[in-house]
Amino acid sequence: MQQKKEISKAVISRLPRYYRYLGELMEEGVERISSKELSLLMNVTASQIRQDLNNFGGFGQQGYGYNVKFLYREIAKILGIDRQHNLIIIGAGNLGQAIANYTNFEKRGFLLKGMFDVNPRLVGLEIRGVKIMPVDELEDFLRHNEVQIAALTLPKSKAPAVADRLVSCGIKAIWNFAHIDLQVPDDVVVENVHLSESLMRLSYRATNLQERMQKEKTADR
Ligand code: NAI
Q1: In what order do the strands lie in the sheet with 189-192?
Q2: With pLDDT > 90 as the criterion, what percentage of the chain qualifies?
Q3: What backbone phi and psi angles, to 5 degrees, belong to 131?
Q4: Could you tell me if 34 and 66 are in contact, meaning their C-beta atoms sit under 8 angstroms apart?
Q5: Mean pLDDT, the chain, whole residue set
Q6: What is the pTM of this model?
Q7: CB 177 within 8 A of CB 95
Q8: Which of 34, 129, 137, 163 is the most buried (most CB within 10 A)?
Q9: How far is the CA of 131 from the centre of ligand 1 (A)?
């Protein structure tokens, strides 16, 4: 039997992009694609694609390219999105509601099952059929409902205590938007999403680009 290899974080971080492109190819009715064609489409080298996909036993056949549907399904399995994940959101303010209103997550198998907040003015409101509940009811809700992922979209000062409560209830995956590093046991995974960090990286690249172009201009004179 083939031994399951440890896949590097860098490869894992590239898989959702492969998945997205393969999904689009499938919609266009493309059945097979070579690493070269995929590389042109995705603007990465063909050797990078071959190396990445070889991690999973290589789904490509020399001369035939990759079977798009098969590869799409295999990547879904690796990412664990071949099954349904039930999701709750803690903090039903601007960001929490924006996430709840984004229908595309459902298409990927992430189903919103509940939203929680402390604000009595929000409690009882419905976002796309999901009621906002008082956060006091969190434990009771988790006792009676299967939930795999909890999104934290509440103030950072409140995030650690809520994360502890979630962990006590058996939640193993936290999608953390609060700007704080959470301390969790080893059997719990946290994915931090920080738009401001992404914006700072963009600012760095834009600033460097400007400086480089300025230098080139001066050198040309
Ligand atoms: P918001 O103020 O609109 O919403 C926060 C909600 O959390 C409020 O409805 C509030 O009543 C609720 N809340 C407070 N304490 C709570 C508790 N103990 N349990 C349950 N709910 C509680 O704020 P917004 O704009 O939605 O931002 C939410 C969080 O996400 C903030 O921490 C903010 O810094 C962060 N954020 C992160 C981004 C990112 O890229 N990671 C982007 C935007 C915001």
Answers
A1: 126-127, 130-134, 110-117, 85-90, 149-152, 173-176, 189-192
A2: 72
A3: -80, 140
A4: yes
A5: 91
A6: 0.86
A7: yes
A8: 163
A9: 17
**Ligand 1 pocket mutation, candidates 137, 154, 190, criterion most atoms within 8 A of CB:** 154
Tell me the per-residue pLDDT of 191-217, one tens digit each, with 9 for 90 and over.
999 999 999 999 999 998 888 888 888
Domains of the chain: 9-79 (1.10.10.10), 85-196 (3.40.50.720)
Q: What is the pLDDT of residue 107?
A: 86
Closest Cα to atom 12, ligand 1: which residue? 91
Give the contacts of 21 (CB within 8 A, at least 6 positions apart): 38, 41, 42
DSSP bridge pairs for 151: 89, 175
Which residue owns the Cα nearest ligand 1 atom 3? 93
Instruction: Tell me, letter by letter, the H, E, C secondary structure of 155-200.
Output: CCCCHHHHHHHHHHCCCCEEEECCCCCCCCCCCCEEEECCHHHHHH
